[in-house]
Design goal:
Length: 44
């Protein structure tokens, strides 16, 4: 796929930052979901 091909080219740092931002996005989404879930639980 596109990302794999990119990593084989000289764009490796760009590929790394792409993956990092993707991971950060996933973690932020998860953390937000968890905190909302906790708020809902405590409000009940």
């Amino acid at each position: 796929m596109f990302l794999v091909r990119m990593s084989k080219v000289k764009n490796f740092p760009m590929y790394q930052t792409l993956m990092k931002s993707r991971l950060n996005y996933i973690f932020e989404e998860e953390a937000e979901y968890k905190s909302n879930h906790m708020l809902n639980k405590s409000s009940n």
